[in-house]
């Protein structure tokens, strides 16, 4: 059964609504860990719209489980990651205008840059993962790049409008997980997962970790962060 990584970006989104101090994503990370999450995920975006440099410095010092930094291939961000040394760096595409990460990394298109960036980070002892769509060619390219871990984008599954689409997207995730595992890749998954649609993804054989943010932080408004994490953990690892 997979592990649960909690993405705390949206605690910082709330803080940035006032650009003051509360709520603090570093404190949120501690609460998520106490509630039983297996890793803390944060995305240092180029525009710093939520998580900022101070957050990742402190997260590096205080996270007791694993710190998974989501990041683009931008040179400045890569230099920061190399200096901070999170346990893991998940390479994601990034567009300034997007509301959230829209699609997976195009590994074929950015092959050389991904390879170079991954090697630089790995040389500093950071594990590297590629956030990609559940598409055969992207997985094949990921394997060729020498990066041993991928995170399959579950956005299309999460946004499926009816049962037919949901079944189709789930089958795709199952098939692509099997393909990636057969190539020897470590497979994680995430994006857009909610309390009602996570169970089926958590049951896919071979998925090692689910990374979930927005739905947990949203639920925390009603039931508190600790309970929200525990509820999701019970779905992922009953
Ligand atoms: N995984 C990756 C690579 C992401 O970029 C995000 C969003 O930052 C997530 C997982 C979590 O997505 P959500 O907030 O929709 O659960």
Structure in words:
The protein is 47% helix and 17% strand. The chain has 238 residues and is α/β, with parallel strands linked by helices. It has one domain (3-236): Aldolase class I (TIM Barrel, Alpha-Beta Barrel). Strands 1-2-3-4-5-6-7-8 form an 8-stranded parallel barrel, surrounded by 8 helices. α2 (25-34) runs parallel beside α3 and α10 crosses α11 (225-236). It is globular. The N and C termini lie close together (9 Å). Pyridoxine-5'-phosphate binds next to β8 and α10.
Placed side by side, the strands forming the largest sheet appear as 1-2-3-4-5-6-7-8
Characterize the main sheet: 8 strands, parallel, barrel
- Low-confidence segments, ≥5 residues, pLDDT <50? none
Q: Estimate the global geometry from the Cα principal axes.
A: globular
* CATH fold field value: TIM Barrel
Q: How large is the radius of gyration?
A: 17 Å
What kind of oligomer do you see? single chain
The residue fraction in helices comes out at: 40-55%
The CATH superfamily bears the name Aldolase class I
**CATH architecture classification name:** Alpha-Beta Barrel
Helical/strand content category: alpha/beta
| End-to-end separation | 9 Å
Calculate the mean pLDDT score and round it.
Answer: 97
CATH first level: Alpha Beta
Q: What is the beta-strand fraction?
A: 15-25%
Concise description?
The chain has helices spanning about 10-15, 25-35, 55-60, 75-85, 110-125, 135-145, 155-160, 165-180, 200, 215-225, 225-235, and strands at about 5, 40-45, 65-70, 90, 125-130, 150-155, 185-190, 205-210. The protein is of the alpha/beta class and about 240 residues long.
């Amino acid at each position: 059964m997979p592990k649960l990584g909690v993405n705390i970006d949206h605690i910082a989104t709330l803080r940035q609504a006032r650009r003051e101090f509360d709520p603090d994503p570093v404190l949120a990370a501690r609460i998520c860990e106490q509630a039983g999450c297996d890793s803390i995920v944060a995305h240092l975006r180029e525009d710093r719209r939520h998580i900022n440099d101070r957050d990742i410095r402190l997260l590096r010092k205080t996270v007791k489980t694993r710190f998974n930094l989501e990041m683009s291939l931008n040179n400045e961000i890569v230099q920061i990651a190399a200096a901070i040394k999170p346990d893991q760096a998940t390479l994601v595409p990034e567009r300034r205008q997007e509301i959230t990460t829209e699609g997976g990394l195009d590994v074929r298109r950015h092959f050389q840059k991904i390879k170079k960036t991954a090697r630089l980070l790995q040389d500093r002892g950071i594990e590297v993962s590629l956030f990609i769509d559940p598409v055969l060619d992207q997985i094949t390219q990921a394997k060729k790049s020498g990066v041993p871990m991928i995170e399959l984008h579950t956005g299309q599954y999460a946004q499926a409008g009816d049962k037919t689409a949901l079944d189709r997207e789930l089958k795709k995730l199952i098939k692509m997980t099997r393909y990636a595992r057969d190539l020897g890749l470590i497979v994680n998954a995430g994006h857009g997962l909610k309390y009602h649609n996570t169970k089926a993804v958590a049951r896919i054989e071979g998925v090692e970790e689910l990374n979930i943010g927005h739905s947990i932080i949203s639920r925390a408004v009603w039931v508190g962060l600790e309970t929200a994490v525990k509820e999701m953990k019970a779905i992922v690892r009953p």
